[in-house]
Amino acid sequence: MTPMEQLKAMVAGKKVAFIGAGVSHKPCITMLAALGADITLCDQKKSLDDFGDYADTLRKLNVKLSLGEHYTDGFAGQDIIMRTPGYEFFKPELQAAKQAGALVTSEVELFFELCPCKLIAVTGSDGKSTTTTLAAKLLEAQGYTVHLGGNLGRPLLPDIESISPQDMAVLELSSFQLHTMRKSPDIAVITNLSPNHLDWHTSMEE
């Protein structure tokens, strides 16, 4: 199966919740809805009108909404939950959904599972963006078609159909994104490690 066929087999007819409608989630919501997923958007915004121009897209896609103070109630009964990196994996609401059988994943995780070309991933406390950009430019100078994503560039999952095995994907990944990753890249780059985000992670060791 092609990557797109694999993704369709995974989401068609399934209940898929997105936590938030940020930059990476908007194109993914459109993509998964087109593949036959039953989408619920869980967001702290209080009403559909609070989404501004994006409200029209949500209406056209028939996206269900779980909004406001109790937006995480929308996790219940979902087959797949698309986590945004800023939403802590160990929050009780998400863990309860996982225990109930939901697959908790993300745009980057699905891309890693389905990407047909080699992956280079860059992480660390500082210098990620610079290193990722330099790696992409070096590969482009070698004649590769390079797909730049993660924290830098656009979400790559919606482009999966146009990526060939001869291309290269270069992604900047934060510790938030790496926390639940199940697959490694072909090449991993770690710039440095220093104590930060300890208000989010439970310890430096984590």
Topology of helices and strands:
Blueprint: H1 3-11, E1 15-19, H2 25-34, E2 38-43, H3 54-60, E3 64-67, E4 80-82, H4 92-99, E5 103-105, H5 107-114, E6 118-123, H6 128-141, E7 146-150, E8 168-172, H7 175-178, E9 187-190
Parallel strand pairs: 1-2, 1-4, 2-3, 4-5, 6-8, 6-9, 7-8
Could you provide a short overview of the structure?
It contains seven helices and nine strands. It is an alpha/beta fold.
Main beta sheet strand tally, sense and closure: 5 strands, parallel
- The N- to C-terminal Cα distance equals 36 Å
Biggest sheet, strands in spatial order? 3-2-1-4-5
Shape annotation: globular
Q: What share of residues is helical?
A: 25-40%
Round the mean pLDDT to the nearest integer and report it.
92
Helix-and-strand structural type? alpha/beta
Total number of strands:
9
Q: Which oligomerization state do the chains in this entry correspond to?
A: single chain
Radius of gyration: 17 Å
What's the SSE pattern?
A: HEHEHEEHEHEHEEHE
How many helices? The count is 7
Low-confidence stretches: none
How much strand content do the residues show? 15-25%
